[in-house]
């Protein structure tokens, strides 16, 4: 367990996809409350300064490190050079902040930010788009390796890679030395998959873990009312570990009992006006400590 570090994402304080959620919460409040709740790492949100000296000082004063940051890819819909340019900028920023992994997710054809039913209109890649995605990811993996980093692919609701079968295809068609996987317990459960089964199957490829829970009553509403992904978020479909019905403890134990070395990141995007970020951060920290000893 000593090789596992615990971080929390700022999306509970201010939502990158829905900036109106938590607009009143400052960067300083966010990172101060993360530290107060007992976390030692953070992912990077839209209010974080991009000046690495400024950001480093603010985090170091609170005993925090950067775990990673989200990077949008458009390998299926745009020339590779456009994604490459943005990726290199993110890579270099994260390297300067001491992060070893770069979270990436394909946004070509994504509906995660659109007002469309998330369960009805998931994009489906053509074979040619799958080829562009897998070869593009390997090239980005090579760019990450140049600086001693690696990419971890984030499967995500509303995108072309959200199911276990789609994760299988991605893993089968990419080089393990170049492309790793981010395991997200909440997104897998949202998609109707078993996080433990995916963890078992692709354990050797997993380089980053997001821990989030799901409220089953809200999940059913998302299906019944044909909600979009973001409407589901606003309704409270996600919550912190231990507050929903996802069996997170066995997943955490599998990593804790292994030689996994990396981050567990609590990530539960909610409306901070309805779910106080510090309260839920403390709830998550207590749950992880009480169930795993971490």
TrEMBL record:
Q: Give a yes or no for keyword Zinc in this entry.
A: no
* Biological-process GO terms, alphabetical: inositol catabolic process
Question: What EC designation does it have?
Answer: 4.2.1.44
Q: Offer an example of a GO molecular function term for this protein.
A: manganese ion binding
The record's listing under InterPro entries reads: IolE, IolE/MocC, IolE/XylAMocC-like, Xyl_isomerase-like_sf, Xyl_isomerase-like_TIM-brl
Q: Which residues form the Xylose isomerase-like TIM barrel domain?
A: 35-281
Which terms are listed as keywords in the entry? Answer: Cobalt, Lyase, Manganese
* Family annotation (HAMAP family): IolE (MF_01672)
Checking PANTHER family in the record gives:
HYDROXYPYRUVATE ISOMERASE, INOSOSE DEHYDRATASE
Q: Identify this protein by name.
A: Myo-inosose-2 dehydratase
